[in-house]
Design a protein that fits this description.
The protein contains eight helices and no strands. The chain is mainly alpha-helical and about 200 residues long.
Length: about 200
């Protein structure tokens, strides 16, 4: 349901990434308390980015368990393609990008606080990576046959396959930057058009 800005409810999506807020409240021990409210706003922006990343890697997860042969093939494929490392690389790049953008709006936050916030995000990602990789295995097992999985293993075991694996993080990191810049441009256009449309209808923003 569309609501005017003055009637917009407060954000209720904090539970979607509960560990982020838990980390802010429990582990930012070296950050001055006066900065916590600023960091919370920055991290809430991070939340939407991390959710998007999670959706990219887990979209289409099924509940059907694969047979042992396929499960073994999936595990081998994800190891050969360094999937966990790829996810961490892309997510860390996204975290740095979102944090840098957020901190630009709060120049009074000390560099030590910024560095600690970045460290905490990386630490938390490392601790939770299995929660993304394990369900991803089901996606592969539910999507590909054993023959297809073995064919991919053969490809990624080859020289050109390993080249693809090696270059994927580079392309993905650049895509994150490009996507962020594109998103900000489109978001600005969307908000300008919405504001104009509401203003034309007589609403005061």
């Amino acid at each position: 349901m569309w609501r005017l800005p003055s009637d917009r409810p407060r954000d209720t999506g904090r539970g979607m990434v509960p560990w982020i807020m838990a980390i802010l409240s429990c582990r930012l021990t070296r950050i001055p308390p006066r900065h916590l409210y600023q960091l919370e706003g920055i991290v809430m922006k991070l939340k939407s980015g991390l959710i998007a990343i999670g959706m990219i890697f887990t979209l289409g997860i099924g509940n059907v368990m694969a047979d042992p042969a396929r499960e073994k093939a999936v595990t081998e494929l994800l190891e050969i393609t360094r999937t966990a490392e790829q996810i961490k690389a892309v997510t860390i790049q996204s975290i740095r990008l979102f944090l840098d953008q957020g901190f630009r709006s709060h120049p009074d936050i000390a560099e030590e606080a910024k560095d600690r916030a970045y460290e905490i995000m990386v630490e938390t990602l490392q601790e939770n990576i299995d929660g993304l990789v394990d369900p991803l295995k089901k996606v592969y097992a539910d999507t590909y046959s054993l023959e297809e999985l073995n064919a991919m293993i053969d490809f990624y075991s080859s020289d050109i396959g390993q080249k693809v694996v090696e270059k994927t993080p580079v392309i993905a990191q650049q895509a994150v930057v490009i996507g962020s810049q594109w998103g900000m441009t489109v978001n600005r256009q969307v908000m300008e058009r919405i504001h104009k449309d509401l203003a034309d209808k007589g609403y005061k923003l």
